[in-house]
Amino acid sequence: MAINNVAVDEGVMQIPSWWTCPAGYEELQKKAHLIGKNHLLSGASISDQQSVYPRESLKTIAEAGFGAVTIPAIDGGLGAGFTGFAVLAESFAQYCASSTMCWVMHTAAVQTLYSAGTPEQRERYIPGVLKGEVGGLAFSEPATGSHFWNVVSKAPRYGNGYLLNADKSFVTSAGEADWYVVATSYPNSSESDNLMFLLVKNDQDGVESFPFSAMGLRGNSSGPMKFKDVFVPIEDRLGGEGGMNYYNDNTIDPLFLLGTASCWTGIAQGALNAAIDSAKKKVHADTGKNVASYQVIRHELAKAQILVDSSRSLLYRTAAGMDECIKNGLPLSECLYPLWQLKTHAADIVIQVTNQALQVSGGRGYLTGQVEKFLRDGRAGALMGPTNEILREWIGRTLIEVPWFE
Fold it and tell me: What is the pTM (predicted TM-score) of this model?
Protein backbone atom coordinates (compact mmCIF):
# COMPACT_ATOMS: atom_id res chain seq x y z
CA MET A 1 0.00 0.00 0.00
CA ALA A 2 1.02 3.65 -0.27
CA ILE A 3 0.25 6.71 1.82
CA ASN A 4 0.96 10.13 0.29
CA ASN A 5 2.86 8.31 -2.48
CA VAL A 6 5.26 6.78 0.05
CA ALA A 7 5.30 2.99 0.18
CA VAL A 8 4.84 1.56 3.66
CA ASP A 9 4.57 -1.94 5.07
CA GLU A 10 1.08 -3.29 5.53
CA GLY A 11 -0.14 -2.69 9.06
CA VAL A 12 2.42 -0.04 10.04
CA MET A 13 0.66 2.75 11.91
CA GLN A 14 1.20 6.19 10.41
CA ILE A 15 1.43 9.10 12.83
CA PRO A 16 -1.03 11.76 11.59
CA SER A 17 0.62 15.00 10.51
CA TRP A 18 -1.84 17.10 12.52
CA TRP A 19 -0.45 15.50 15.67
CA THR A 20 3.04 16.85 15.05
CA CYS A 21 2.32 20.12 13.23
CA PRO A 22 -0.49 22.71 13.39
CA ALA A 23 -2.67 22.80 10.28
CA GLY A 24 -1.39 25.24 7.69
CA TYR A 25 2.24 25.14 8.86
CA GLU A 26 3.29 21.86 7.25
CA GLU A 27 5.40 23.46 4.50
CA LEU A 28 7.10 25.74 7.01
CA GLN A 29 7.96 22.71 9.13
CA LYS A 30 9.31 20.80 6.13
CA LYS A 31 11.53 23.73 5.19
CA ALA A 32 12.83 23.96 8.77
CA HIS A 33 13.73 20.26 8.82
CA LEU A 34 15.56 20.58 5.50
CA ILE A 35 17.62 23.44 6.94
CA GLY A 36 18.23 21.37 10.06
CA LYS A 37 19.36 18.26 8.19
CA ASN A 38 21.39 20.02 5.50
CA HIS A 39 22.97 22.85 7.49
CA LEU A 40 22.43 22.94 11.27
CA LEU A 41 23.27 19.31 12.05
CA SER A 42 26.67 19.35 10.35
CA GLY A 43 27.91 22.24 12.47
CA ALA A 44 26.26 21.24 15.74
CA SER A 45 29.05 19.02 17.10
CA ILE A 46 31.78 21.49 16.11
CA SER A 47 29.85 24.33 17.71
CA ASP A 48 29.46 22.26 20.87
CA GLN A 49 32.91 20.74 21.21
CA GLN A 50 34.87 23.85 20.21
CA SER A 51 32.45 26.46 21.61
CA VAL A 52 32.16 28.00 18.15
CA TYR A 53 29.39 30.53 17.61
CA PRO A 54 27.03 29.17 14.89
CA ARG A 55 27.17 32.27 12.69
CA GLU A 56 26.91 30.33 9.43
CA SER A 57 23.83 28.48 10.69
CA LEU A 58 22.18 31.75 11.71
CA LYS A 59 23.05 33.23 8.33
CA THR A 60 21.44 30.24 6.61
CA ILE A 61 18.29 30.67 8.72
CA ALA A 62 18.12 34.37 7.77
CA GLU A 63 18.72 33.64 4.07
CA ALA A 64 15.79 31.20 4.19
CA GLY A 65 13.56 34.13 5.16
CA PHE A 66 13.46 33.57 8.91
CA GLY A 67 15.33 36.65 10.14
CA ALA A 68 12.15 38.44 11.26
CA VAL A 69 9.62 35.64 11.44
CA THR A 70 7.07 37.30 13.78
CA ILE A 71 7.11 40.71 12.07
CA PRO A 72 4.12 41.36 9.74
CA ALA A 73 4.89 40.90 6.05
CA ILE A 74 3.81 44.47 5.32
CA ASP A 75 6.75 45.66 7.43
CA GLY A 76 9.30 43.32 5.86
CA GLY A 77 8.94 40.26 8.07
CA LEU A 78 7.69 36.77 7.36
CA GLY A 79 4.36 37.30 9.12
CA ALA A 80 4.28 33.69 10.38
CA GLY A 81 3.04 34.70 13.83
CA PHE A 82 3.83 32.97 17.07
CA THR A 83 2.71 29.57 15.82
CA GLY A 84 5.15 29.80 12.93
CA PHE A 85 7.88 30.88 15.34
CA ALA A 86 7.17 27.87 17.58
CA VAL A 87 7.13 25.42 14.64
CA LEU A 88 10.48 26.70 13.41
CA ALA A 89 12.17 26.76 16.83
CA GLU A 90 10.95 23.27 17.76
CA SER A 91 12.13 21.91 14.40
CA PHE A 92 15.55 23.64 14.43
CA ALA A 93 16.25 22.45 17.98
CA GLN A 94 16.07 18.82 16.87
CA TYR A 95 19.38 19.43 15.05
CA CYS A 96 21.31 22.20 16.83
CA ALA A 97 20.18 23.62 20.16
CA SER A 98 22.82 26.38 20.24
CA SER A 99 21.77 27.78 16.85
CA THR A 100 18.14 27.59 17.91
CA MET A 101 18.65 29.39 21.23
CA CYS A 102 20.61 32.19 19.54
CA TRP A 103 17.81 32.52 16.97
CA VAL A 104 15.09 32.50 19.65
CA MET A 105 16.78 35.34 21.57
CA HIS A 106 17.36 37.18 18.30
CA THR A 107 13.67 36.87 17.39
CA ALA A 108 12.64 38.19 20.82
CA ALA A 109 14.98 41.16 20.39
CA VAL A 110 13.64 41.89 16.90
CA GLN A 111 10.04 41.69 18.09
CA THR A 112 10.85 44.07 20.96
CA LEU A 113 12.41 46.51 18.49
CA TYR A 114 9.32 46.24 16.31
CA SER A 115 6.79 46.54 19.16
CA ALA A 116 8.41 49.33 21.15
CA GLY A 117 10.37 51.07 18.40
CA THR A 118 9.53 53.96 16.12
CA PRO A 119 9.09 53.62 12.33
CA GLU A 120 12.51 55.23 11.94
CA GLN A 121 14.14 52.66 14.24
CA ARG A 122 12.46 49.84 12.34
CA GLU A 123 13.76 51.23 9.05
CA ARG A 124 17.29 51.39 10.46
CA TYR A 125 17.45 47.90 11.92
CA ILE A 126 15.03 45.50 10.20
CA PRO A 127 16.68 45.57 6.72
CA GLY A 128 19.95 44.44 8.32
CA VAL A 129 18.14 41.71 10.24
CA LEU A 130 16.69 40.36 7.00
CA LYS A 131 20.24 40.13 5.61
CA GLY A 132 21.55 38.19 8.59
CA GLU A 133 22.40 40.70 11.31
CA VAL A 134 21.81 39.26 14.79
CA GLY A 135 20.09 40.94 17.71
CA GLY A 136 20.44 40.02 21.37
CA LEU A 137 18.83 40.66 24.75
CA ALA A 138 20.97 42.00 27.60
CA PHE A 139 18.67 41.79 30.63
CA SER A 140 19.77 39.67 33.63
CA GLU A 141 22.17 41.23 36.12
CA PRO A 142 24.39 39.61 38.78
CA ALA A 143 22.67 41.53 41.57
CA THR A 144 19.21 40.09 40.87
CA GLY A 145 20.02 36.68 39.35
CA SER A 146 17.20 34.95 37.51
CA HIS A 147 14.84 37.83 38.36
CA PHE A 148 15.89 39.29 35.02
CA TRP A 149 13.00 41.77 34.99
CA ASN A 150 14.56 43.59 37.96
CA VAL A 151 17.61 45.67 37.06
CA VAL A 152 19.81 47.83 39.28
CA SER A 153 21.88 49.43 36.52
CA LYS A 154 21.21 53.03 35.54
CA ALA A 155 21.47 55.23 32.49
CA PRO A 156 21.02 58.91 33.39
CA ARG A 157 20.76 61.66 30.81
CA TYR A 158 24.05 62.71 29.27
CA GLY A 159 23.96 65.40 26.63
CA ASN A 160 21.63 64.34 23.83
CA GLY A 161 21.41 60.80 25.10
CA TYR A 162 22.24 58.53 28.04
CA LEU A 163 25.36 57.28 29.80
CA LEU A 164 24.90 53.55 30.32
CA ASN A 165 26.74 51.63 33.02
CA ALA A 166 25.53 48.05 33.40
CA ASP A 167 26.86 44.62 34.31
CA LYS A 168 24.91 41.80 32.65
CA SER A 169 25.25 38.19 33.74
CA PHE A 170 23.75 35.90 31.06
CA VAL A 171 23.61 37.28 27.53
CA THR A 172 23.07 34.88 24.64
CA SER A 173 25.25 35.85 21.64
CA ALA A 174 27.43 37.93 23.98
CA GLY A 175 30.08 39.66 21.88
CA GLU A 176 28.66 38.08 18.73
CA ALA A 177 25.33 39.85 18.17
CA ASP A 178 25.41 42.98 16.02
CA TRP A 179 23.20 44.87 18.47
CA TYR A 180 21.47 44.39 21.82
CA VAL A 181 18.31 45.53 23.55
CA VAL A 182 19.77 46.50 26.93
CA ALA A 183 17.43 46.71 29.92
CA THR A 184 18.39 49.39 32.42
CA SER A 185 16.68 52.00 34.57
CA TYR A 186 16.19 55.72 34.17
CA PRO A 187 16.80 57.28 37.60
CA ASN A 188 14.49 60.28 37.11
CA SER A 189 11.56 58.51 35.50
CA SER A 190 8.07 59.91 36.02
CA GLU A 191 6.52 56.63 34.85
CA SER A 192 5.06 53.94 37.12
CA ASP A 193 8.30 51.98 36.67
CA ASN A 194 11.78 53.16 35.72
CA LEU A 195 12.65 50.30 33.34
CA MET A 196 14.19 51.60 30.12
CA PHE A 197 15.36 49.83 26.94
CA LEU A 198 18.36 51.05 24.95
CA LEU A 199 19.68 49.83 21.60
CA VAL A 200 23.44 49.31 21.79
CA LYS A 201 25.69 48.14 18.97
CA ASN A 202 28.36 45.56 19.67
CA ASP A 203 31.18 47.74 18.34
CA GLN A 204 30.45 50.77 20.52
CA ASP A 205 33.13 52.00 22.91
CA GLY A 206 32.74 50.56 26.40
CA VAL A 207 31.06 47.29 25.35
CA GLU A 208 32.83 44.14 26.57
CA SER A 209 31.84 40.47 26.62
CA PHE A 210 33.15 37.49 28.56
CA PRO A 211 31.61 34.25 27.20
CA PHE A 212 32.08 31.32 29.54
CA SER A 213 32.51 27.58 29.12
CA ALA A 214 29.24 25.89 30.06
CA MET A 215 27.89 22.37 30.47
CA GLY A 216 25.61 22.65 27.42
CA LEU A 217 24.50 25.10 24.73
CA ARG A 218 28.21 25.63 24.28
CA GLY A 219 27.92 27.36 20.93
CA ASN A 220 25.63 30.19 21.94
CA SER A 221 28.36 32.46 23.33
CA SER A 222 26.43 33.03 26.53
CA GLY A 223 28.10 34.97 29.29
CA PRO A 224 28.52 38.28 31.11
CA MET A 225 28.74 41.63 29.39
CA LYS A 226 29.84 45.00 30.67
CA PHE A 227 28.59 48.31 29.36
CA LYS A 228 30.97 50.90 30.82
CA ASP A 229 30.25 54.58 30.18
CA VAL A 230 28.54 53.69 26.91
CA PHE A 231 26.96 56.73 25.31
CA VAL A 232 23.58 55.91 23.78
CA PRO A 233 21.98 58.67 21.68
CA ILE A 234 18.35 59.44 22.39
CA GLU A 235 17.31 58.06 18.99
CA ASP A 236 18.43 54.61 20.20
CA ARG A 237 16.05 54.56 23.15
CA LEU A 238 13.13 52.17 22.68
CA GLY A 239 9.92 53.64 24.09
CA GLY A 240 10.01 56.06 27.00
CA GLU A 241 12.24 57.03 29.87
CA GLY A 242 10.81 54.26 32.02
CA GLY A 243 7.45 52.55 31.74
CA MET A 244 8.84 49.58 29.82
CA ASN A 245 7.46 46.93 32.15
CA TYR A 246 4.53 46.82 29.74
CA TYR A 247 6.81 45.47 27.01
CA ASN A 248 8.46 43.13 29.48
CA ASP A 249 5.06 41.50 30.13
CA ASN A 250 3.68 41.75 26.61
CA THR A 251 6.70 41.15 24.36
CA ILE A 252 9.87 39.95 26.11
CA ASP A 253 8.38 37.35 28.46
CA PRO A 254 5.89 35.85 25.95
CA LEU A 255 8.48 35.47 23.17
CA PHE A 256 11.17 34.23 25.53
CA LEU A 257 8.95 31.66 27.26
CA LEU A 258 7.40 30.40 24.00
CA GLY A 259 10.75 30.24 22.20
CA THR A 260 12.67 28.48 24.94
CA ALA A 261 9.84 25.98 25.51
CA SER A 262 9.97 25.26 21.76
CA CYS A 263 13.69 24.65 22.10
CA TRP A 264 13.33 22.21 25.02
CA THR A 265 10.58 20.32 23.21
CA GLY A 266 12.73 20.07 20.08
CA ILE A 267 15.79 18.93 22.03
CA ALA A 268 13.73 16.17 23.64
CA GLN A 269 12.46 15.02 20.24
CA GLY A 270 15.94 15.20 18.71
CA ALA A 271 17.44 13.06 21.48
CA LEU A 272 14.62 10.55 21.20
CA ASN A 273 14.99 10.41 17.40
CA ALA A 274 18.69 9.62 17.82
CA ALA A 275 17.91 6.92 20.39
CA ILE A 276 15.29 5.33 18.13
CA ASP A 277 17.70 5.29 15.20
CA SER A 278 20.41 3.70 17.33
CA ALA A 279 18.02 1.09 18.77
CA LYS A 280 16.92 0.04 15.27
CA LYS A 281 20.44 -0.20 13.87
CA LYS A 282 22.30 -1.84 16.76
CA VAL A 283 22.11 -5.65 16.42
CA HIS A 284 23.31 -8.07 19.10
CA ALA A 285 25.32 -10.81 17.41
CA ASP A 286 24.43 -13.43 20.03
CA THR A 287 20.67 -13.08 19.56
CA GLY A 288 20.45 -11.68 16.04
CA LYS A 289 18.01 -9.06 17.36
CA ASN A 290 18.30 -5.31 17.27
CA VAL A 291 17.90 -3.31 20.48
CA ALA A 292 14.46 -2.10 19.40
CA SER A 293 13.16 -5.67 19.35
CA TYR A 294 13.16 -5.76 23.17
CA GLN A 295 9.82 -4.86 24.71
CA VAL A 296 11.38 -2.91 27.57
CA ILE A 297 13.14 -0.64 25.07
CA ARG A 298 9.94 -0.02 23.09
CA HIS A 299 8.10 0.86 26.30
CA GLU A 300 10.77 3.40 27.23
CA LEU A 301 10.55 4.93 23.75
CA ALA A 302 6.76 5.11 24.02
CA LYS A 303 6.83 6.75 27.46
CA ALA A 304 9.34 9.31 26.24
CA GLN A 305 7.37 10.13 23.08
CA ILE A 306 4.18 10.65 25.08
CA LEU A 307 6.01 13.21 27.22
CA VAL A 308 7.35 15.01 24.14
CA ASP A 309 3.92 15.10 22.54
CA SER A 310 2.35 16.45 25.73
CA SER A 311 4.82 19.33 25.64
CA ARG A 312 4.26 19.85 21.91
CA SER A 313 0.48 19.96 22.41
CA LEU A 314 0.86 22.63 25.11
CA LEU A 315 3.29 24.49 22.87
CA TYR A 316 1.04 24.79 19.84
CA ARG A 317 -2.10 25.45 21.85
CA THR A 318 -0.36 28.32 23.64
CA ALA A 319 1.10 29.72 20.40
CA ALA A 320 -2.36 29.65 18.81
CA GLY A 321 -3.73 31.52 21.83
CA MET A 322 -1.06 34.19 21.42
CA ASP A 323 -1.90 34.60 17.73
CA GLU A 324 -5.57 34.91 18.67
CA CYS A 325 -4.73 37.66 21.17
CA ILE A 326 -2.95 39.67 18.50
CA LYS A 327 -5.81 39.11 16.05
CA ASN A 328 -8.34 40.41 18.59
CA GLY A 329 -6.20 43.34 19.78
CA LEU A 330 -5.64 41.88 23.23
CA PRO A 331 -2.38 42.13 25.22
CA LEU A 332 -0.12 39.08 25.20
CA SER A 333 0.07 39.27 28.99
CA GLU A 334 -3.26 37.40 28.92
CA CYS A 335 -1.23 34.36 27.86
CA LEU A 336 1.32 34.48 30.67
CA TYR A 337 -0.35 31.79 32.80
CA PRO A 338 -0.33 29.13 30.04
CA LEU A 339 3.18 30.23 29.10
CA TRP A 340 4.36 29.60 32.68
CA GLN A 341 2.90 26.10 32.54
CA LEU A 342 4.36 25.48 29.09
CA LYS A 343 7.91 26.52 29.97
CA THR A 344 7.88 24.59 33.24
CA HIS A 345 6.58 21.41 31.60
CA ALA A 346 8.91 21.60 28.59
CA ALA A 347 11.95 22.22 30.80
CA ASP A 348 10.95 19.31 33.06
CA ILE A 349 10.25 16.75 30.34
CA VAL A 350 13.43 17.47 28.39
CA ILE A 351 15.45 16.34 31.42
CA GLN A 352 13.47 13.11 31.69
CA VAL A 353 13.36 12.36 27.96
CA THR A 354 17.07 12.98 27.34
CA ASN A 355 17.83 10.69 30.29
CA GLN A 356 15.59 8.01 28.78
CA ALA A 357 17.25 8.48 25.37
CA LEU A 358 20.65 8.02 26.98
CA GLN A 359 19.53 4.88 28.81
CA VAL A 360 18.07 3.36 25.64
CA SER A 361 21.29 4.17 23.77
CA GLY A 362 23.38 2.27 26.33
CA GLY A 363 27.11 2.75 26.62
CA ARG A 364 27.38 4.38 23.22
CA GLY A 365 24.92 7.04 24.32
CA TYR A 366 27.27 7.94 27.15
CA LEU A 367 30.05 8.72 24.69
CA THR A 368 30.44 12.19 23.20
CA GLY A 369 27.75 12.46 20.54
CA GLN A 370 24.21 13.52 19.72
CA VAL A 371 22.32 12.06 22.68
CA GLU A 372 24.94 13.11 25.22
CA LYS A 373 24.97 16.64 23.75
CA PHE A 374 21.18 16.92 23.84
CA LEU A 375 21.19 15.83 27.50
CA ARG A 376 23.63 18.61 28.40
CA ASP A 377 21.83 21.20 26.26
CA GLY A 378 18.39 20.44 27.68
CA ARG A 379 19.50 20.69 31.31
CA ALA A 380 19.67 24.48 30.98
CA GLY A 381 15.90 24.86 30.67
CA ALA A 382 14.86 24.49 34.31
CA LEU A 383 17.63 26.88 35.39
CA MET A 384 16.88 29.61 32.87
CA GLY A 385 14.96 32.50 34.39
CA PRO A 386 12.23 32.58 35.36
CA THR A 387 13.39 29.28 36.87
CA ASN A 388 10.91 26.44 37.16
CA GLU A 389 10.70 27.05 40.91
CA ILE A 390 9.68 30.69 40.36
CA LEU A 391 7.13 29.72 37.72
CA ARG A 392 5.57 27.03 39.91
CA GLU A 393 5.19 29.64 42.66
CA TRP A 394 3.43 32.02 40.26
CA ILE A 395 1.16 29.22 39.04
CA GLY A 396 0.37 28.17 42.60
CA ARG A 397 -0.39 31.73 43.72
CA THR A 398 -2.70 32.15 40.74
CA LEU A 399 -4.54 28.96 41.65
CA ILE A 400 -5.28 30.19 45.19
CA GLU A 401 -6.26 33.61 43.81
CA VAL A 402 -3.60 35.83 45.35
CA PRO A 403 -1.38 38.28 43.44
CA TRP A 404 1.26 36.33 41.56
CA PHE A 405 3.90 39.07 41.52
CA GLU A 406 5.17 40.81 44.62
Answer: 0.94
